[in-house]
Design goal:
By secondary structure, this protein is of the alpha+beta class. It folds into two domains: about 60 residues; about 280 residues, f41 fragment of flagellin, N-terminal domain. It is built from eight helices and 15 strands. The strands form five sheets. A six-stranded antiparallel β-sheet has the order 7-15-9-10-11-12. It has a three-stranded antiparallel β-sheet with strand order 8-14-13, with no helix packed on it. The two termini are about 15 Å apart. InterPro entries: Flagell_FlgL, Flagellin. Keywords: Cell projection, Cilium, Flagellum. GO terms for molecular function: structural molecule activity.
């Protein structure tokens, strides 16, 4: 009698365990409550869920990058419109029928457009500056008390993951979008540049004049640290401001560019329209007119450079658009696989629940009848 009771209790505990499993599957629609229920299936679920989380992170990062890219694209389009406006106004300034008052108005207009360019160059999205280079936390363009605007970002680009172990460069930096190559020199050639120009080599390193002698160029690495690499001698002419010249290394693959800031170009153009030099000293009307004509050609170069940078940005943006589609597709596939592996078959759960109900009924009926037996009847 005692042995039979123990057997009944054991069988009842098994049924209770099964009931808990079926109740869990019904309420959560998940197949496994504990990893020990099916260790092989649990391992597969862990791997698949890890993939889901990975691609969810990639998708979020790419979507954020797309927002930044779209804003950068919009800003570049506005910058091109401003440069087109500047070109049109310089054509008017070079027209003989334009009065001195008209020239003054054009100078004021260009000064205002410079401020618009400054705002666009510091475009910010979600607390990140889109044209700052690899460190998007710093404001890329700064203005001093004299109104001179300087790029303080770097020549690198921030990399964003678009796939597991695969990264792509995002956007363009300040050198790309607000400077233009006023001079280019290759292996063994001669580079000419102004003191305000930024000199960038084929690897993205910047070379700076050594003050106060300005007779040597020193290489700075991508982190902005001075190296022991130098180029000398650097010569200059007697003009104001002077033009410098330097011979490039006789090494294959050498390419140096003297990049002129579009902000500096606008400042110089405004000064010429006002008939003053960079120090505020008056210049002749003939000299001013010659400078304005020259700067008109420089604005054309600046516009071409910005147009190339905009096209480059568009190509990179397209890569992220395609990457988002691919990552979204993979995420969908892994989501489906995760549900197929981990979801309970509700039809099967219903069948098992009904069978369990019948088993419970039969077991309780047996227990009831057993309890009704007297010792005499049991011995019989």
């Amino acid at each position: 009698m005692i042995t039979q009771t123990e057997q009944m209790t054991y069988r009842l505990s098994l049924l209770n365990t099964q009931q808990q499993r079926l109740t869990y599957q019904t309420s959560t629609q998940e197949k496994l409550q504990d990893g020990s229920d099916d260790s092989m299936l649990y391992s597969r679920l862990i791997l698949v869920d890890e993939k889901v989380r990975t691609f969810e992170g990639l998708k979020t990062q790419i979507q954020k990058t797309q927002v930044q890219n779209n804003m950068a694209d919009s800003s570049m389009a506005e910058i091109k419109k401003i440069l087109e406006n500047i070109k049109e106004q310089l054509v008017k300034a070079n027209t003989a029928t334009t009065t001195d008052d008209g020239i003054t108005a054009i100078a004021s207009s260009l000064a205002g457009l410079k401020e618009n360019l400054f705002q666009l160059a510091n475009t910010q999205v979600e607390n990140e500056y889109v044209f700052a280079g690899s460190d998007s936390s710093i404001k890329p363009f700064e203005k001093d008390v004299n109104g001179k605007i300087t790029y303080v970002g770097n020549s690198q680009l921030k990399k964003v993951a678009i796939e597991e172990g695969s990264y792509r460069e995002r956007g363009i930096n300040g050198f790309d979008m607000m400077t233009y190559p006023s001079s280019t020199a290759y292996k063994g050639g001669t580079l000419t540049f102004k003191e305000t120009d930024r000199i960038i080599d084929q690897d993205g390193n910047e070379w700076k004049l050594n003050s106060p002698t300005n007779d040597t160029l020193t290489k700075y690495d991508l982190n902005g640290n001075a190296t022991t690499d130098t180029i000398n001698p650097v010569t200059s002419d007697a003009l104001t401001p002077p033009t410098y010249s330097a011979s490039m290394p006789n090494v294959d693959g050498t390419k140096f560019e003297a990049k002129t800031s579009i902000f500096d170009l606008v400042d110089a153009t405004v000064n010429a329209l006002k008939k003053v030099d960079s120090n505020g000293n008056p210049i002749s009307a003939e000299n001013a007119k010659s400078l304005v004509a020259n700067y008109q050609g420089e604005v054309d170069k600046a516009y071409d450079s910005v147009n190339i940078a905009h096209a480059n940005l568009g190509g990179k943006n397209k890569i992220f658009e395609i990457s988002l589609e691919r990552v979204s597709s993979k995420l969908t596939q892994f989501d489906i696989l995760s549900r197929n592996l981990g979801s309970a078959d509700l039809a099967q759960v219903a069948i098992e629940s009904k069978a369990l109900e019948l088993t419970y009924t039969a077991l309780y009926s047996t227990i009831s009848k057993t309890n009704q037996l007297s010792l005499v009847n049991f011995l019989k």
